[in-house]
Design a protein that fits this description.
38% of the residues are buried. Helix content is 20%, strand content 35%.
Amino acid sequence: MKIIVILSFLLLSNSFMKFGYDSDYVTFSSPVYDGLTFKIIKMERRDNHIRAKYFAVKDLDGKNVPDRYKEWSKSKNIITVCSGTYMDKCDPNAKPVSITIDQGNIVNKTITSMDGVVTVFSSGEIVVGNIKQGDLKIANKNYNLKNPLESESFFKWAQTNKATVFQTHLLIYKDELTIYENSSKNARERRFLAGCTDDEGNKYEYIIHIPESITLFEGAKNTKKFLKIKQQMKTLDYLINLDTGCQDFFEAYNSNGQKRNDYAGREVISNSINLISFYFE
């Protein structure tokens, strides 16, 4: 009898681990502000329950990113998953165009003109740095990636600590816009990842999807106003761009594990070259 009870408890525990997360930590909403729709996923980083995972490339055995994600996610309480940064072309053999490190495996050391460098720790923490300002703080040490010696030191740190790193457009950093009005005039739907802090020092991550066609500058400027005024965030620690091009994949899940139909990209997961996911643990 005791064995049956223990087995039942373990089965129930495993079921919760896979199919449930605490909805107190996650908020879905789609407010309209200044004529734009902000489809947001607001995730509170309290108690470190909300974690991130980034799949940058195929693994060393050749398993592609969609298959890696599907296998990993079987035991995870997924909140959202979407495409990450840019590739050099739109096909399954595409390669990352800038710094790429996958779980300590260095794929690409090329530092391009994009200001944002994103480090995802094996613990699920995210740190965003500003390459242009030489500002990337990791474990009480600052790395200036424009300095060859410091960039090599950072690459060695990433290898040792099995970190995942990618580069993308940094749109806001420490409350300041880092993109200019005369930048690209290309208008399309936008998706951003934001890190914010409220008046009480609580940390949040936001996935923000704007379905209307706007430029990156317009998207960043309006998102800053939205987060400051509508969401009452004291500080915008960072805002980075996520790819909505040829690998535009996006899914979100309710706390009971049910996929939401109102959060979706244009593409299927099989077209994804890289993915960023947030989950509850």
